[in-house]
């Protein structure tokens, strides 16, 4: 267990939250407002191509496409792994998903602070949904922290731990790709992603990935599946012999 690295990441996460939470620090409010209003000025009937692109990027279909891309990236990680196998990377995917579900459940049950997206809090904003017939999302009653951002960060963190550097960097870039559309239409503040989701990732994930926990879970599950497979194969052989 690399305690020094864990504490370093945890300190970064706490510092990030502190710079956002304390009223003396106004940097995140300024960044949130500046980025929201910059993109919002282009969500008008005068920019039909841009609004159509944004609408497409904020639908469930785009979310599904991003999920497929995650699966493809996981497959690429397996193929680039000298010791890669379907079993190993299937188990890594399972442990990663379990981590995401547990962390998401903890957040939803314990985190009491919530706020709406900029389109739900500010007046005189341009709404994407007024300009498109697509079922796009441009507002949220509770946008902090960003679920999309946190899930993408969990994937990226697992790739940094288990995959090679190319896949890890691509997974990191994917965090930006997944989160940017929601920020550009005002369904999330920038701080929902890069304070809320990122601080949680920095505080929670090191205790999974910088300790033996994740690797031990993967190795133990692989051994369990191998024993079960051997037992089933042995039973099948005896059944055929008896018949």
Automatic annotation (TrEMBL):
Annotated GO MF terms: kinase activity
Transmembrane region(s): 7-28, 61-77, 89-107, 166-187, 193-218
Q: Which InterPro entries match?
A: PAP2/HPO, PAP2/HPO_sf
Keywords of the record:
Kinase, Membrane, Transferase, Transmembrane, Transmembrane helix
Domain Phosphatidic acid phosphatase type 2/haloperoxidase residues, every copy: 91-208
Q: Which domain of life is it from?
A: Bacteria
Q: What is this protein called?
A: Lipid-A kinase
Please report the organism this UniProt entry assigns to the protein: Kushneria indalinina DSM 14324
């Amino acid at each position: 267990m690399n305690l020094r690295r864990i504490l370093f990441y945890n300190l970064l996460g706490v510092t990030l939250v502190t710079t956002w939470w304390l009223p003396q620090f106004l940097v995140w409010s300024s960044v949130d407002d500046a980025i929201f209003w910059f993109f919002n000025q282009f969500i008008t009937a005068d920019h039909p191509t841009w609004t159509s692109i944004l609408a497409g990027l904020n639908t469930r279909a785009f979310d599904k496409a991003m999920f497929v891309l995650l699966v493809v990236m996981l497959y690429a990680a397996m193929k680039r792994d000298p010791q890669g196998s379907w079993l190993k990377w299937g188990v890594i995917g399972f442990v990663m998903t379990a981590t995401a579900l547990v962390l998401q459940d903890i957040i939803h049950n314990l985190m009491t602070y919530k706020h709406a997206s900029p389109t739900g809090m500010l007046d005189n904003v341009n709404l994407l949904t007024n300009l498109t017939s697509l079922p796009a999302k441009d507002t949220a009653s509770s946008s902090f922290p960003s679920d999309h951002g946190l899930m993408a960060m969990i994937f990226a963190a697992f790739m940094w731990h288990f995959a090679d550097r190319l896949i890890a960097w691509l997974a990191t870039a994917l965090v930006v790709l997944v989160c940017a559309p929601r920020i550009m239409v005002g369904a999330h503040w920038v701080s929902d992603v890069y304070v809320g989701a990122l601080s949680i990732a920095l505080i929670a994930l090191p205790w999974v990935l910088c300790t033996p926990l994740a690797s031990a879970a993967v190795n133990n599950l692989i051994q369990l599946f191998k024993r079960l497979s051997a037992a089933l194969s042995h039973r099948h052989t005896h059944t055929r012999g008896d018949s």
